[in-house]
Amino acid sequence: MTAFSHLPNPPVVRVGVIGVGLIGQDHIRRITQVLTGGAVVAVNDVDAARAGQVAAGLPGATVHATAADLIADTGVDAVLVASWGPAHEEQVLAAIAAGKPVFCEKPLAPSSEACLRIMDAELAAGRRLVQVGFMRRYDAGYLAMKAALEDGSIGVPLLMHCAHRNPQVPPYGFTTDMIISDSAVHEIDLVRWLFGEEIVAASVLVPRRSGQAPAGMQDPLILLLEMANGALVDDEVFLNAQYGYDVRGEVVGETGTVALADVSEVTVRAAGRYGGRIPVDWRDRFIRAYDAELQDWLTAVAAGASTGPSAWDGYAAAAVTDSALAALRTGQRTAVTMPERPDFYAKAD
Ligand code: NAP
After folding, report:
1. Position in ligand 1 atom list of the atom nearest CA 135
2. Of ligand 1's atoms, which has the minimum distance to the CA of residue 21?
3. What confidence tens digit (pLDDT) does each residue in 324-336 have?
4. How many angstroms separate the CA atoms of 226 and 76, rounded?
């Protein structure tokens, strides 16, 4: 329950945003200009100048010197964490301690141990307060794919082929491990949701290295993920593919397949050729999914509920990430070890 959910026409959810870099600013734009039921009333960033610049475009918004001050602000109903991953645990735990709903960008925290601490805090609080930013679950293509799996259109699913291609990463700072922890984590969550099954083991194959990758970075990688029901998922993650942002997926079943369609608005046929547009980046490709996930969050917060990807989902993704990173280091298939999902997190996806 929020302070105002008993009212017939609840006012907007007053959101405080921690971390106003790329995605923080994009979420502020959508809360302010696209979605209903939310207003950004406070911001914080370790880069105080950036926080000030962003707040200048938000009439009446407060700039807080620390994330803790923002969370404690009684004018903030709910917290959106878009800082860098290593800061997430402390900020999410503080929001839970304050009893405030918190939307946390992926990863929920950089290690499965840290995610467990967040789950423990939420369990102790006795109600769901955390939603994790796994926006692919809100993408129209993946939703249609899940519907096709559930209505039996392709029979029993056996395999899934995924590709996650990005034009390039920055020349410095993006490591080989981050191909798994920052990028493949999207497919890791997606296939758990799509199949309604946990991942039980991960292997990583290391193909020929692209000369377009920054020095020291092994790109691409191929992950093999084994689902609890025996289905096998291969995931090509290639972050310096140059030609565009291209996310693909095809599930192969006993009697058919279901694949994501190309997302170009039109196909042009001319001069003996045909073609379409490839998205330039993740914001372009998943813009509607980000809108839908954040609208879902605002609506749930206003209703005193929580419906999106949970702290358990954040934890499970981190546990698989840990195993995939171990597989990358050792070259061995690595089992995923997780406790049973607490009943607290049981829900129909
Ligand atoms: P970014 O552009 O670097 O923005 C992060 C911002 O947070 C920066 O302004 C950074 O300041 C600030 N910051 C860092 N530590 C902080 C702390 N302890 N307290 C307050 N502010 C802090 O990164 P981004 O691309 O927006 O990514 C942010 C998060 O969103 C990451 O967890 C990332 O994985 C996630 N993300 C998710 C998606 C998705 O598809 N769901 C897409 C992109 C990003 P400095 O620059 O001074 O460090």
Report:
1. 41
2. 4
3. 999 999 999 999 9
4. 42
